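Review form for a predicted model. The reviewer records the input and the model, then writes brief findings.
Reviewer: anonymous (R2)
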Amino acid sequence: MSKITVENYPQATVACFDATRGELPRRKLDPETNNRFLEKLAAAGAEAVLIAASTGHGHLRTVEELNDWFLSTRDAAIESVTKMALLRPEDGVAANSGLAQTLAKSGFDVGFVRPGNDLLPDATDRQIADNMLPAIKAVADVGLAVGVYSIPDVSGLPLRPDAVAMILDECQAVVAIKVTESNYEQSTKKFLSDTRLNALKIVQGWDPFLAKALKDDPVRCGVTSGPMSFAIIQYLHILKKAKDNDWEEVELAQHAVTRLFESMQDDPAKFADLQRAKYIMGLGHPISGQIDETQIERVFEALEKVERVEDRSRLAASLNLMGAGPYAERLNELAESHSSN
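Model under review:
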């Protein structure tokens, strides 16, 4: 059985970038750099990491690439960190059964499943639940806790409370719902309000809504954050202030992250392209694309315009977590601006 239950589910999880190397048309995972990144996150204070989330373009990886990615994390010295993974129904029963076995032997604690991107646009809640259940049961069968995940930017269809209730009827291993949707009232709020789901952790995944979710229900709500990959120090500050019920500071600090989030967001209804932050950190280009200088400068312009110097310093230090990226010197100057003011 998994050591993770609803009661001890981590309050905050980093949706991790995947370090990459090589050239187009397809770059490869850089396992050594990737594990150094995981170790840096752990040293900074991350209590949990999610592997193969959309932040790292994990949804574009083949089954074989995902398997290698999961296996490679065994070499990271992050024994105190909860490890989570994401599986995709469209990969099929056999593939997900094999990946679940890999998760079990690689020290993972939780396996998330989202709706498959092979569903028809008019799929019913019953069809969505049935689409997800084979992968969910594969995770549960190897003794891991299960999370369900709504991310329509990727899957094409959102997950709704009725579908989750149907899943719960057939699998008791589900401990959390992760919600990455651009409308809080139509997603997170509905999961929080549905009494059938009272026993589950509700994990906010669209970062600008983090403060709202924590304030609505600081006990039941948690966060799984893509921006936490590039803003770990700022997020730990936000979470501490939320625990202290200092909501004014939470809002102000979150606003600074949101400025960077928006600088990587080409469409306000779509999740930001955090691969730009990944490149700035020295973790490589996207597996099937290229980051250009205009995109980079847009991020730096937003960072330099962050109003509060403390926020700017924490964000710059987080972006310089690896200490060896192509903009390390520039970030170091911004991080040190706090001490000179």
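Findings: Residues 276 and 296 are 7 Å apart (CA to CA).
Further findings: The longest strand covers residues 82-87.
Recommendation: see findings above.
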